[in-house]
Amino acid sequence: MKRSWFLVAVLMTGSGIWSADWPHWLGPSRNGSSPETGLISKWPANGPPLVWKVEGGEGYSAVAVANDRAFTLVQRQDRELVLCLDANTGRTLWTYDIGPGFHNEYGSGPRSTPAVEGDKVYITSVNGPVLCLEMHSGKLVWQRDLLRDFGGKRITWGMSASPLIEEDLVLVIPGAPGASVAALNKKDGSVVWKTGDDQAAYASPNIAIIDSRKLALFFTASGLHAVDFRTGKSLWRIPWKTDYGCNICTPLVIGDLVFLASGEQMGCAVYRLSATRPQLVWESRGPRSVLKTYWANAVHHNGYLYGISGEFSSVLSLNCVELKTGKLIWSVSRFGKAALTLADGHLFIVTKTGDLVLAEATPVAYREKARIKGFLGDNRTVPTIANGKLYLRDRKNIYCLNLRTH
């Protein structure tokens, strides 16, 4: 995979510390984990040092970081904007006005996260446009529209799937008849292939490589759809329907396994991937599922899954589940809604109510090492870790914290 351009991933001379960019949704390996090491594991009482804090806006878009720039989508004064900030100072380098904003009772503003590839930034608007911008200037290179160009259907909570850039393709999910999923040429936005009839859900696509064959994985409103990355040929499907089409979490690829999970009492399962027919390893369905993630992706570390399990209420739990068996190892009840990122053997967690939490990623027991209550406002944004810094958002501001010991 041609991701080395993004991954600064340079071993700092004599220090044994790794740093990496976070160029797109769920980080460099698209699994919610950072390869960074040397991050502080003992926090001051008020949390890691604040590097900068700037105005953001409405929305749940995460922060993508590449080439010392930070990118995210916000909504201000009923307009959806792309922000490009200096990743080290928070200074605004440019903004791009996509168009009208989006309003919903569960939160207004954009949902997807920008993707950086080479000197370009790719964006999917909550209202359907897909854009390619010059990274340094914000100048428009090309634009398509998932609804107008493909006949996609506007879904209840807005277009949420982040664009996936792999080789020369941009993977998107129009959710249209004959174009449920599609690949665009990253240079000009032309359609390379399109296939399927499933309605779009809210999950971003992912990539798996099985027996030297690259599979594009799309979690639509009907289930998991595997497509040949290069040709767009439909390979197989796993039916997975929830109420309201709420498949939200990106399929988590772990070697030749994929972890699927949804809320709405659906539950979770692990499948062994194949280019012809996936094999069920284990499943845990229904209200007593060991890990029914709703909108926050689980992460994997050393054979164990960690994630928020539950539905709408504040009594959601933080669970640890053995990957190979589906056994529930431990559970922290009433943890509440939260999003988490893995780095340096720790879970960096932000609760919806604004607590910033550091916990050790271990199956032995839940070991909370720090909790800064009310650090943020209301939010649903996944933390970003890049080059020794932690990037956070709530519905008003964007924050950058220093995680380095040096």
What key attributes describe this structure?
406 residues; four-stranded antiparallel sheet; disordered N terminus; mainly beta; Methylamine Dehydrogenase, Chain H
Give the topology.
Layout: E1 10-11, E2 18-19, E3 33-34, E4 50-55, E5 64-66, E6 69-76, E7 79-86, E8 92-100, E9 115-117, E10 120-124, E11 129-134, E12 140-145, E13 164-166, E14 169-172, E15 181-185, E16 191-195, E17 206-210, E18 213-219, E19 223-228, E20 234-239, E21 252-254, E22 257-262, E23 267-272, E24 279-285, E25 299-301, E26 304-309, E27 317-322, E28 328-332, E29 338-343, E30 346-351, E31 356-360, E32 367-372, E33 384-386, E34 389-393, E35 397-402
Parallel strand pairs: 3-29
Antiparallel strand pairs: 1-2, 4-35, 5-6, 6-7, 7-8, 9-10, 10-11, 11-12, 13-14, 14-15, 15-16, 17-18, 18-19, 19-20, 21-22, 22-23, 23-24, 25-26, 26-27, 27-28, 29-30, 30-31, 31-32, 33-34, 34-35
Written account of the structure:
By secondary structure, this protein is an all-beta fold. It has a single domain (10-402), classed as Methylamine Dehydrogenase, Chain H, CATH 2.130.10. The chain has strands at residues 10-11, 18-19, 33-34, 50-55, 64-66, 69-76, 79-86, 92-100, 115-117, 120-124, 129-134, 140-145, 164-166, 169-172, 181-185, 191-195, 206-210, 213-219, 223-228, 234-239, 252-254, 257-262, 267-272, 279-285, 299-301, 304-309, 317-322, 328-332, 338-343, 346-351, 356-360, 367-372, 384-386, 389-393, 397-402. Strands 3-29-30-31-32 form a 5-stranded mixed sheet, with no helix packed on it. A hairpin with a 5-residue loop joins β11 and β12 (140-145). The radius of gyration is 20 Å and the shape is globular.
